[in-house]
Amino acid sequence: MADFIRFFIPLYFIIFFTVSFVGISYKVARQIGKNPNVLPKDGSAYALVGMYFKLILLALFVYTILLLFFPEDIFTTFKINFLENNFLQYIGITLMILALIWVIIAQLQMKNSWRIGIDNATKTELVTHGLFRFSRNPIFLGMTISLVGFFLVFPTVIAFSFLLIGSILIQIQIRLEEEHLLKEHGQIYMSYKKRVNRMLSLY
After folding, report:
1. CA-CA distance, 9 to 139, in Å (whole number)?
2. Would you call 85 helix, strand, or coil by DSSP?
3. Are the beta carbons of 135 and 196 closer than 8 angstroms?
4. Which tens digits make up the pLDDT trace of 23-78?
């Protein structure tokens, strides 16, 4: 299992970011004629959140690459031994794969409305169909689930830190986007907000 995890984790995140960020960004950019990455680069609090997002993604990438090339050192560093068993690892692998599929489907369902960040220059359509009938933030939900799966597959304090910090940043970003969507869509968004939960509706 250790050899499988060593290759699975870095390959998974390479595929995740290549497809769901680079690939989808390229697809949407061709359709809307501009870069869908609209995270600000000024000195605002929102820009700071965006910068922390990028730093976490970079740190996650470096960590998984170190796991690939230095497995003996990384596997044993800050390991949470009582969580390491095959059953939890299989659950984690399943969650990671399902999360990737979920995120890609949600991005495709957003079509031209998909952005990395809040687009203040262009009014985007409010997407409420498909996976958005069950979650107002299916992409963020999928990202969170992938981090949960990662922690179960590779239970270390560092992996838990990625889950904790990533979840906090995601929740901040969600609330920033909610404020924007309320201004953008008004009562339509309010009705949608009452109907569908922030992360997941099971009805």
Report:
1. 20
2. coil
3. yes
4. 999 999 999 999 999 999 888 889 999 999 999 999 999 999 999 999 999 988 99
Residue 203 has pLDDT above 80, yes or no: no
- What DSSP line would sit under 4-35, residue for residue? HHHHHHHHHHHHHHIIIIIIHHHHHHHHHSS-
Name the helix (H) or strand (E) containing 163: helix 157-185
Q: How far apart, in whole angstroms, are the C-alpha atoms of residue 116 and residue 9? A: 24
Judge contact between 25 and 36, C-beta under 8 A: yes
Assigned token pair, 56: 């976490």
- pLDDT value of residue 2: 86
Question: Helix or strand or coil: residue 196?
Answer: coil
**Average pLDDT, integer, range 153-163:** 97
When pLDDT is averaged across residues 144-172 and rounded to a whole number, the result is 97
Give 138-154 as a DSSP string: HHHHHHHHHHHHHHHHS
- Looking up tokens 């939960």 gives 197
pLDDT of residue 149: 98
Q: Which residues, 6+ apart, have CB-to-CB distance to 151 below 8 Å? A: 92, 159, 160, 162, 163
Residue 130: left (phi > 0), alpha (psi -120 to 50), or beta? left
For the chain, list the domains and their CATH numbers: 2-195 (1.20.120.1630)
